[in-house]
Structure formats: structure tokens, C-alpha cells
Write a structure and sequence with these properties.
The protein is of the alpha/beta class. It contains 9 helices and 10 strands. Strands 1-2-4-3-5-6-9-10 form an 8-stranded mixed sheet, with helices on both faces. It has a two-stranded antiparallel sheet with strand order 7-8. Strand 3, helix 2 and strand 4 form a beta-alpha-beta unit. The chain is globular.
Length: 322
């Protein structure tokens, strides 16, 4: 069936509200107060490379270097919003390479006549699975070079789309190895409703407005080209053997995640992934911490709640030190 070129406003709004997969938050939510942000007290140690996609965060001073962690954000998420995770890793003695996928953060092509914001979104319209997979592979090489130089292992941490791409890289490239992984709501399986977005993928330039808090999203909307890349990554991973994925892996998922089926994710872990451990997070309704209505956004205290985030921090520290 040929999809009509005329897409009704009602359909787009429904898709955005119900199926805005990995645009950080499904529901409209207030912006996160700047005072609530997790700060890096040793931000002066941050070293920025010439490559705008790569930003290094050094381990906390006076701690022994235990490893190098490659960190990858979710779809249309500001890469710097991974800083709460990065802080825990730095304090645990890890150097961190935070990767910005094309169309996010400072990783975009400047274009004559366009503002930085407009150029970033235009770059986002041109992304593909192949492009993102190549960027992740290049970042892995950088992390591996640093790890080999220091004589320490490489770890991986990814949220949503980032978790999916990390698993795909490990499963499909025998030159890639991680000592351990930490995954936050990895996009290995999406709710059945999310697949309805595939009907719009023939229109890569169509942008669905994001309803996520401005302090989390890197663009005001997500183009269908990005969703198509997401679905292609899921399809590519399904073609791979899970053997290489069976490494010590810590997986966080909110029991009420709107986008990822937590029970199905648990079943995936049971089928051959014997070294994966699923940690179900529960948001206490009386916890003053959560500042967003989405249960998918579990990368900091604002998304999980105070008590749940304390558990996340403790689990990460234990995982990387085992």
C-alpha cells in the first residue's frame, strides 16, 4: 500500500504522543531546574578533543585507574545529560569517553545561512544506522587505545538507543570486546505500538515534535530518518548471535517503562544471556526526586527519584569493581 503524502495533523500528534520512541520523554513534563542537575565537581579535568563527537571525562583525582568506559546517550538526548552516570564512573576510578552521535550535541555539520540549532536538526535529518554504527566503532577504537596505553580494560555504558548500538557493535564485530556493560533501558525490544512509526519511515525529513523537557532534548523534534536508523539497528542485532553478548552486564529498567517491555527484556536475558542481571527500578510516588513523568528516562535522580538513584549508584559501583 502506498502511504498518502498527506499526513494528517491528528495522526502526527498521536504518533508523537504515544509513539515518540526514545525522544527522552513520552509525556509533557516541566523543565528540570538547573539546581537539580548532577554536577561534576572536577569538571576542570574535562578534556575536549578536536573531534566534536568525543569528550573525555577523567577519573576522580587520587583514585586508581580501573578502566575506560565508552558512554553513549539515547535518541535526541543531550549527550551531557549522561553526566550523572559519568560522575559515578569517574568516582569509581574510570576514565570516560562520552560519545555524541551525529545530530546530537556538538556533532553536526555547520551550514551556511543556518544557526547552530538549525544546522544540528538538519544534520539529524541525514543520519543513518550505518553512520551511527561507524561513529561508535571509531569511538571504541579511541577508548581501546587509551585503555591499552594504561593497561586497563574497556567497559561500555549506554542508554536506550546507545545501549542498543553498543550491543549491536559487540555482537557483530569480533574485534570489539568489553569487560562489562551497563545498560539503561536498552532499546533491544520496543513496545508493539512503537512499530507503528515504521509507517512514516518513507518520509525521512518529517520531524515529530519532542514533548520532552528542553533541558534533556538536543533538538526540538526527531526526524523519521533517526527512527529508521533505530529500527535498522534493532533488525541488524536480531541477525547476530547472542553468544558474544553474554558478558557481565548490569541492566536497569523501570517496571513501568512506556517504551521498553521490561518483562520481555527479562525473558531475553534468560535465553542464553546467563551473565546479565536485570535491576527493576520502582518509583515511589512519595519520593520528591522525580521531575519528569516518563519512566523511560532513568539516567539521573530527576528521572528515577532519590531513593532509586541511590540504588543505581550503588549497583554501578559494585558492578565495575567486581
Amino acid at each position: 500500500m502506498i502511504l498518502s503524502l498527506i499526513i494528517t495533523r491528528r495522526y502526527v500528534r498521536t504518533a508523537a504522543a504515544v509513539l515518540a520512541v526514545f525522544v527522552v520523554s513520552v509525556f509533557a513534563a516541566p523543565d528540570i531546574p538547573s539546581s537539580f542537575s548532577s554536577r561534576l565537581p572536577y569538571a576542570a579535568l574535562l578534556a575536549k578533543e578536536k573531534n566534536p563527537a568525543h569528550r573525555w571525562f577523567k577519573k576522580k583525582r587520587l583514585t586508581k585507574l580501573r578502566g575506560v568506559v565508552l558512554v553513549v546517550h539515547g535518541l535526541n538526548l543531550r549527550p551531557e545529560r549522561m553526566k550523572a552516570v559519568i560522575r559515578v564512573l569517574n568516582e569509581a576510578g574510570m576514565d570516560v569517553l562520552n560519545l555524541s552521535l551525529h545530530g546530537h550535541g556538538e556533532n553536526y555539520l555547520p551550514m551556511a545561512g543556518l544557526s547552530d540549532k538549525e544546522a544540528r536538526l538538519e544534520s539529524f535529518r541525514r543520519v543513518s544506522y550505518t553512520l551511527w554504527a561507524g561513529e561508535l566503532r571509531d569511538a571504541y577504537r579511541k577508548a581501546r587505545e587509551r585503555a591499552d596505553e594504561k593497561g586497563v580494560p574497556v567497559y561500555f555504558a549506554g542508554f536506550s538507543l546507545g545501549g542498543l548500538l553498543g550491543c549491536d557493535l559487540l555482537a557483530s564485530d569480533r574485534d570489539v570486546s568489553f569487560r562489562r556493560m551497563i545498560l539503561f533501558a536498552p532499546a533491544l525490544n520496543v513496545m508493539i505500538e512503537a512499530h507503528l512509526l515504521k509507517t512514516l519511515t518513507p518520509f525521512p525529513n518529517l520531524v515529530i515534535d519532542s514533548l520532552s523537557p528542553p533541558s534533556y532534548r538536543t533538538n526540538d523534534g526527531t526526524p523519521m530518518a533517526a527512527y529508521r536508523a533505530l529500527f535498522e539497528a534493532i533488525a541488524h542485532l536480531k541477525e547476530q548471535s547472542t553468544d558474544r553478548l553474554d558478558i557481565p552486564t548490569l541492566v536497569f529498567i523501570d517496571e513501568n517503562d512506556e517504551l521498553i517491555d521490561g518483562r520481555n527484556l527479562t525473558e531475553i536475558a534468560w535465553k542464553g544471556l546467563t551473565r546479565w542481571r536485570i535491576v527493576m527500578l520502582h518509583r515511589d510516588k512519595d519520593d520528591p526526586g522525580p521531575q519528569t513523568l516518563s519512566h523511560h528516562l532513568i539516567i539521573d535522580e530527576a528521572g528515577t527519584g532519590r531513593e532509586a538513584w541511590k540504588r543505581v549508584e550503588a549497583e554501578i559501583r559494585r558492578h565495575v569493581r567486581e
